[in-house]
Amino acid sequence: MADSTPPSQETLSNLLHETRSFPPPPELAAEANVKAEAYERAAEDRLGFWEEQARRLQWEHPWDTVLDWDPPYAKWFVGGKLNASVNCVDRHVANGLGERVAYHWEGEPGDTRSITYAELKDMVSQAANAMTGLGVGKGDRVAIYMPMIPETVVAMLACARIGAVHMVVFGGFSVDALGQRLDDSRAKLVVTADGGYRRGKASALKPAVDAAVADRPAVENVLVVRRTGQDVEWTDRDVWWHDAVESQSTEHTPEAHDAEDPLYIMYTSGTTAKPKGILHTTGGYLTQAAYTHWAVFDLKAETDVYWCAADIGWVTGHSYIVYGPLANAATTVLYEGTPDTPHRGRFWEIIQKYGVTIAYMAPTAIRTFMKWGDDIPAEFDLSSLRVIGSVGEPINPEAYIWYRENIGGNRTPVVDTWWQTETGAIMVSPLPGVTSGKPGAAMRALPGIVADVVDEAGRSVPDGDGGFIVIREPWPAMLRGIWGDPQRYEDTYWSRFEGLYFPGDGAKKDEDGDLWLLGRVDDVMLVSGHNISTTEVESALVSHPRVAEAAVVGAADKVTGQAIVGFVILRDGGEEVPEELVKELRNHVGTSLGPIAKPARLLAVPELPKTRSGKIMRRLLRDIAEERAVGDTSTLTDSSIMDVIAKQLPSAR
Ligand code: 6R9
């Protein structure tokens, strides 16, 4: 590196050389929903392409203009009117699909419900009537703090139906996190449950809502579903769902909303700052959610049984448990609980039981299943699967191969889907009937999406180089802003590169021009003037047979600027990395990626700090590596994890 260049100006080093590639199975390719021509069609006439996709939906009034682009503010399908809940439910019933199962719901204790589209329509209509009765109207915000039960979907669709804006908060978030989101959105109604089942126990939800609404008079009512039957405190503003909703008429006449009317707000926690309320609107969002769900999973709605094992409180649940699948009249599995209750084969048992054909889950889950062992999925019949997907983080090549072999029977394509809360829907992914999958690569921007990798100056990098992923053209499901804070929207996404949307992720183009996502740029390590991606070093560590999971961070170092510190979960559960293994792992990384990427220190940990969507919170590990007090842990799945790690590592206090 030239001395005159400040180190941070150099773009990401391209270290990994992965050469495996799996072509689409010929039968799937022959029958695929999307063929290779779609890319050309969309490139020739991008707006025309998206208009075609918008016609998947039922519009009460057609749009006048496809796109009104006043950078960085986009309006899609301007003048169009539609109702998202009608698109997800009523029109399927009207089209004779009322008897089709919308959801096979599986409660953690083993109770089940199958809900048809006709039943869902009745439930949504009742909830819409109840919400109207509680004084909720168009534009009002409704907070939803729920377990994974059918009423959660019903509450979302009821909001969409009456034009209220839903704001789902993860059922595991703390009182403070919920309170902050209630304040920012000024929600009028909270929908919750007494509790839900997790890890074999009834875990309470209502007490957190009670505490959060106690000093928040803006919340007028709390609508409570009885799920566990546990005792709850009760106040005047509380209303039971079974009283308020189930007594309502199943008739509700929906109103058509503007394509650009707000549909929902979803908060992203960010790293340190106040959470951002990402705003999504109706027409463009539903168009891209429906198209991508149909295209990326090759959905055949009449025959497929689809399962996305995400939480509805994550954007993945919004787009790929609720809006995408319902808009496509799919049959979806909805599971309440954790993968290890009552046994570690629960996911595979669910796939076998319902004959799931398409499964979608996060790399963090896949790595956990790898750790638990191949013999567990081997006990179940997974032959119904035909496409399997991954989302949330870069999937390590080893995890990809394990998933493909042990879950996909070495037969099904793996779709590694890259997107964000902000993008609303999948942006970069293989198409299962078109693309040869490479382990660890999200491959290509979908038809109609214009993505690129640029250097620090915003110049497109040649194939074989790394840099920053950007989106060059607006897309239908893009966020319309940050709730109440337009300046922050411009600063966060549009200020780094003139005229380009910057998602905040590092990426590279390989020699074929395929895209590899390399993690958040905030996490990139700077070692002796080289920017090194955490993803690549972690993938190299995980490819060693003794390592189950790994997270690496750059810690300040006098000599190299930053030194790589690796936190590893050992397969044998060891509490320390023995001296000879440290050497072996350093050499293993050196051989895979080059000597520059060798970790300076390796620490064994029992668990890694993760968000509820399974992302490793590297900033907390950086605090440990740099021996400072650990920062904000309020969005961790399990906030006690940092104490566990701290106990084990003497430097972690
Ligand atoms: C859908 C979702 C967004 C961030 C994103 C990126 C990471 C998600 C990924 C991936 C590599 C993938 N991410 N999918 N990185 N490969 N297939 O996760 O939304 O929770 O907002 O997170 O997640 O870093 O920028 P969200």
TrEMBL record:
<keyword id="KW-0547">Nucleotide-binding</keyword>
<feature type="binding site">
    <location>
        <position position="544"/>
    </location>
    <ligand>
        <name>Mg(2+)</name>
    </ligand>
</feature>
<dbReference type="GO" id="GO:0003987">
    <property type="term" value="F:acetate-CoA ligase activity"/>
</dbReference>
<keyword id="KW-0067">ATP-binding</keyword>
<feature type="binding site">
    <location>
        <begin position="198"/>
        <end position="201"/>
    </location>
    <ligand>
        <name>CoA</name>
    </ligand>
</feature>
<keyword id="KW-0436">Ligase</keyword>
<feature type="domain" description="Acetyl-coenzyme A synthetase N-terminal">
    <location>
        <begin position="37"/>
        <end position="88"/>
    </location>
</feature>
<dbReference type="InterPro" id="IPR011904">
    <property type="entry name" value="Ac_CoA_lig"/>
</dbReference>
<feature type="region of interest" description="Disordered">
    <location>
        <begin position="1"/>
        <end position="27"/>
    </location>
</feature>
<feature type="binding site">
    <location>
        <position position="547"/>
    </location>
    <ligand>
        <name>Mg(2+)</name>
    </ligand>
</feature>
<dbReference type="InterPro" id="IPR025110">
    <property type="entry name" value="AMP-bd_C"/>
</dbReference>
<feature type="binding site">
    <location>
        <position position="505"/>
    </location>
    <ligand>
        <name>ATP</name>
    </ligand>
</feature>
<protein>
    <recommendedName>
        <fullName>Acetyl-coenzyme A synthetase</fullName>
        <ecNumber>6.2.1.1</ecNumber>
    </recommendedName>
</protein>
<feature type="domain" description="AMP-dependent synthetase/ligase">
    <location>
        <begin position="92"/>
        <end position="483"/>
    </location>
</feature>
<feature type="modified residue" description="N6-acetyllysine">
    <location>
        <position position="615"/>
    </location>
</feature>
<feature type="binding site">
    <location>
        <position position="316"/>
    </location>
    <ligand>
        <name>CoA</name>
    </ligand>
</feature>
<feature type="binding site">
    <location>
        <begin position="416"/>
        <end position="421"/>
    </location>
    <ligand>
        <name>ATP</name>
    </ligand>
</feature>
<keyword id="KW-0460">Magnesium</keyword>
<feature type="binding site">
    <location>
        <begin position="392"/>
        <end position="394"/>
    </location>
    <ligand>
        <name>ATP</name>
    </ligand>
</feature>
<dbReference type="InterPro" id="IPR032387">
    <property type="entry name" value="ACAS_N"/>
</dbReference>
<feature type="binding site">
    <location>
        <position position="542"/>
    </location>
    <ligand>
        <name>Mg(2+)</name>
    </ligand>
</feature>
<comment type="similarity">
    <text>Belongs to the ATP-dependent AMP-binding enzyme family.</text>
</comment>
<dbReference type="Pfam" id="PF00501">
    <property type="entry name" value="AMP-binding"/>
</dbReference>
<feature type="compositionally biased region" description="Polar residues">
    <location>
        <begin position="1"/>
        <end position="16"/>
    </location>
</feature>
<feature type="domain" description="AMP-binding enzyme C-terminal">
    <location>
        <begin position="536"/>
        <end position="615"/>
    </location>
</feature>
<dbReference type="Pfam" id="PF16177">
    <property type="entry name" value="ACAS_N"/>
</dbReference>
<dbReference type="InterPro" id="IPR045851">
    <property type="entry name" value="AMP-bd_C_sf"/>
</dbReference>
<dbReference type="InterPro" id="IPR000873">
    <property type="entry name" value="AMP-dep_synth/lig_dom"/>
</dbReference>
<keyword id="KW-0479">Metal-binding</keyword>
<dbReference type="InterPro" id="IPR042099">
    <property type="entry name" value="ANL_N_sf"/>
</dbReference>
<feature type="binding site">
    <location>
        <position position="520"/>
    </location>
    <ligand>
        <name>ATP</name>
    </ligand>
</feature>
<keyword id="KW-0007">Acetylation</keyword>
<comment type="function">
    <text>Catalyzes the conversion of acetate into acetyl-CoA (AcCoA), an essential intermediate at the junction of anabolic and catabolic pathways. AcsA undergoes a two-step reaction. In the first half reaction, AcsA combines acetate with ATP to form acetyl-adenylate (AcAMP) intermediate. In the second half reaction, it can then transfer the acetyl group from AcAMP to the sulfhydryl group of CoA, forming the product AcCoA.</text>
</comment>
<feature type="binding site">
    <location>
        <position position="528"/>
    </location>
    <ligand>
        <name>CoA</name>
    </ligand>
</feature>
<dbReference type="Pfam" id="PF13193">
    <property type="entry name" value="AMP-binding_C"/>
</dbReference>
